[in-house]
Design a protein that fits this description.
By secondary structure, the chain is mostly helical. The chain has a domain at 156-278: Tetratricopeptide repeat domain (Serine Threonine Protein Phosphatase 5, Tetratricopeptide repeat). The protein has eight helices and no strands. The protein has helices at residues 7-125, 156-168, 172-185, 192-205, 209-222, 229-242, 246-259, 264-278. Helix 1 (7-125) crosses helix 2, helix 6 packs parallel to helix 8 (264-278) and helix 7 packs antiparallel against helix 8 (264-278).
């Protein structure tokens, strides 16, 4: 029969086993610390990834916004260039018309002065009227009728230019009388449509817009093949707009734009339409 170890032997065994258990506990604590550090790093990594995603989304939004602003800026520059080119073309057209008008005006003034000098010379050289106008010298030619006042045998072009010179000099009443007299005297002339158009222009320049509309209507009705039709539709639209007849003005201006898009009057009519739209009329 074996004997059990005594208390002293048991205590001695525990004392000998203690140094072997101590490294195991130390290793376990170090491993737990490492696991804690790993979990902390993983959490930091997740936070950094979330922040990176947020920064990426923000960067995409900023890039999209910059692209949008860039497109808007490019479009604005393009629109500005188109507007600048259009205004430059219109300015060149106006300058050319001014130069042409100045040359024409100088020529007309010279012609008017020549006509007046000839008229004065003819009046000075005319013999005194006989006491009996109907009597004629025996054996002589019959007496000729006196010329109509203001005509002096003027040709159609001379009569037209005389009336137009009054228009250029701002003599509105004389210009209207001259053009109306021209239409009565030379109704089938090639310049009849121009004379009717200038009647409308004279009324327009003198502020008689209702009369101007009526004159432009006669151009449109009587001379369907006239080269003044684009300007007649355009100026009629302006006169109607001034009179407050906006719908009729739009119709006249729109017809000029649609029918004569490549003419100066068509381009000016488009600008007038845009101005009416911006004014909310």
């Amino acid at each position: 029969m074996m004997r059990r170890p005594g208390p002293f032997v048991f205590a001695l065994g525990l004392l000998l086993a203690a140094p072997a258990l101590a490294p195991i506990d130390a290793a376990s604590k170090e491993q737990q610390q490492m696991m804690a550090d790993i979990r902390m790093l993983q959490q930091q990594n997740q936070r950094l990834q979330a922040q990176l995603a947020a920064v990426t989304d923000l960067l995409k939004a900023v890039t999209a916004r910059l692209d949008e602003q860039g497109a808007g800026t490019r479009k604005g520059f393009a629109d500005q260039k188109v507007l600048t080119d259009t205004m430059g073309a219109d300015l060149r057209v106006v300058r050319e018309k001014i130069d042409e008008t100045n040359v024409r005006l100088r020529s007309l003034l010279e012609e008017v002065e020549t006509l007046r000098a000839a008229q004065n010379a003819a009046l000075a050289a005319a013999p005194a009227p006989p006491s009996e106008p109907d009597a004629a010298p025996a054996g002589g030619p019959p007496a000729q009728p006196a010329p109509r006042p203001g005509s002096f045998g003027a040709s159609p072009s001379q009569a037209f230019e005389s009336a137009r010179s009054d228009y250029y000099m701002g003599q509105w009443s004389l210009a209207i009388q001259g053009f109306e007299s021209y239409l009565k005297t030379f109704p089938r002339s090639d310049l009849a449509d121009d004379a009717q158009y200038y009647i409308g222009e004279t009324y327009y320049m003198s502020g008689r817009f209702q009369d101007a509309v009526a004159a432009y209507n006669l151009v449109i009705e009587r001379y369907p093949g006239s080269n003044t039709l684009p300007d007649a539709y355009y100026k009629r639209g302006l006169a109607l707009a001034t009179l407050g007849q906006v719908d009729a003005a739009r119709e006249s201006l729109s017809f000029a734009v649609a029918t004569y898009p490549d003419s100066d009057a068509g381009r000016l009519a488009k600008q007038a339409l845009d101005k009416l739209s911006r004014a909310g009329k």
